[in-house]
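User: Can you write out an input/output pair for a complex, sequences first and structure second?

Assistant: Here is one pair. Inputs:
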Amino acid sequence: MRNYVIKGNICYSRTRKELCIVENGYVVCRDGKSAGVYELLPESYEAFPCYNYENKIVIPGLVDLHVHAPQYPFRGLGMDQELIDWLNTHTFVEEAKYADLDYAGRAYDIFAEDLRNSATTRACVFGTIHADATLLLMEKLENAGITAYVGKVNMDRNSPKCLCEESAERSAGDTQRWLHDSRNFKHVMPILTPRFTPSCTDELLEKLSELQKRYHLPVQSHLSENLGEIAWVKELCPGTEFYGESYDRYGLFGNSCPAVMAHCVHSGEAEMDLMKRRGVFVAHCPESNANLVSGAAPVKLYLERGIRAGLGTDIAAGSSLSIFKAMAAAVQCSKLRWRLYDQSVAPLTVEEVFYLATKGGGEFFGKAGSFEEGYEFDAVVMDDSSIRSPRELRVRERLERLIYLAEDRHIAAKFIGGREIFRER
Amino acid sequence: MRNYVIKGNICYSRTRKELCIVENGYVVCRDGKSAGVYELLPESYEAFPCYNYENKIVIPGLVDLHVHAPQYPFRGLGMDQELIDWLNTHTFVEEAKYADLDYAGRAYDIFAEDLRNSATTRACVFGTIHADATLLLMEKLENAGITAYVGKVNMDRNSPKCLCEESAERSAGDTQRWLHDSRNFKHVMPILTPRFTPSCTDELLEKLSELQKRYHLPVQSHLSENLGEIAWVKELCPGTEFYGESYDRYGLFGNSCPAVMAHCVHSGEAEMDLMKRRGVFVAHCPESNANLVSGAAPVKLYLERGIRAGLGTDIAAGSSLSIFKAMAAAVQCSKLRWRLYDQSVAPLTVEEVFYLATKGGGEFFGKAGSFEEGYEFDAVVMDDSSIRSPRELRVRERLERLIYLAEDRHIAAKFIGGREIFRER
């Protein structure tokens, strides 16, 4: 059933500054896409079934541009190190377990179910190097109804033996097989996923570049997260001026297909220029950047310069799958960055983080993340009645409050691309 | 029923560095106080009834050293300004409503019920200038079973008319009447509450000093939160070297009875010295300090210098009543402070924030916040089984994870001073 109407307090972004609110309004789903938001329902849609969520808040689905599914088992743990040590001590140890399909199945069941129960409708997801486990992850996300890009990770250097592919050729070959096997999902799509430059040889990036061109695949990776990492990349890649070039020289930096780069905490002028020219998306992961002591990305600056950006949870360097929490953290980190470090970049506003969490990240998926006409119909209905106040609150206030206080239990219904994920639970 | 045993995974702090964990252990409540933690239950307690929380996590109740009850209705709202503008635009407008006892009753019902359902067992609570509304708040907290210090707020200058007491004499007189009327609560005690120096005349502080001496009352207020505020205090109090002196010269800075000062984000050497000498408690409110762009307090430094400290939610500059969230925010803000501002003060550890949230703040109430023998029996039982993982986790890991992920729904039982607040809900 792809044609219906939702009645409620409809909130969505047109731009990062323009938050549209239609109280007691209607948003129409026609063939899985938005047919617009209305104060009064047009006659032509009166025959559509109407879900009445009067007094609830209806927002576009939230978008998680960066999340590591295999790290979900240790979310909230081990945040006592910086990036490289944290990878070696906590992350690689966990990811190695996904050679075992039984463990992978149990882990990804939990991840897929929790993601289904969250307000996230679309996500860019890292798997591990294991093609079979990554296919299992894709199957579980497909069954959960989530729309996602999922990547089998590539890494062939500077990694523990159990997590280091034996050659660039083998890594590319496994990737090609995985691409072949992942053709038949409806809502889950493959994305090229070189882990990050330190764990990928030039030869591997070259081979991924070929695959990228042949299959027109988008790319996800990490960029300029941590100062030690950046210095390491400079050593590993003589001849590059900045970290982003290490991807760009292989055509993996938004050159022909979309690319999303997580973090960009310490990107300099030249890197920002190139991100803008290439249309690279920044996946801003504020909680992760605090937890791993990476810093605070100047995401307001990215927005002002017209660099595309959205939010990521970065499980498990981020502890929570909630993009609401990522929104609050983004505002808070931008304020601390302003106070403690650089008063030339203003803090983010509520309008801006809501934009980042919806349309900003959604556009990596094409027309998604808004209720404007023609956008994919991703909708989340929030029932905030248990967040009690003796005050009458305006809808704009209730939306702001949800950014700080929403939990999964406040989600009353969820739709993705017009598909009903759950309703009135 | 004040004699019983709780069986479970018992976790508590002895010092800020020493986190004690007894898996499948016992903590004994005798006459409302802890009779110690045991691996094997001593024979002498075998006759006590035993609540079996095997496999759950049992921690001392959490302590909120700074929370504004009347601001609870606008939690999560209006965080677009710094302190003084925020007070005038959002806070004072709300607090003025508590002249109306009907509004106060509805608001404080919600606050008391939500606090009851949280992991907080003890709190230092601000009311408003209104004695009657503050008595109502005390009554509701008493009925909810919370142990608390609650203060009628004093303010006689630089405040909007509706929230400015007409004279120091009137303010002190109302305070005295309120002290008289609040004698009969069992678990809720009065605390002197000059709002902060900018809103209290010298004459008022003088009069509060007299009340303090006569009734041996503890004191709560705000200190060195925001740079503009600090400059203003300097103007208002010629002759003082630093903000804390404006309280100290009236004996309201821990001179004879305990004092707790919220924030201390920008305290200098002389202020720190005096806090240490006077035994003043710092209520560290990390989320508030980010939300109002105040900064990040060097709380690790306070601990290293032997300054007493605990955590505060600072509703509504903080959005959540959860001291778990305050713990996570404290670690995260200390990391960003280190990365962005001052690498001479290390980030907080898990052990340290757990200490701050329990024994560090608890000691403002005497022997509270630990399970060491003789401490008030405040206990919270956490059921984290819904935070699923395919991994076997150690208790230490599960405790760390709760700091980042706990929600009220994970609380299985709560006891304060031996009193059962709820159990197996």
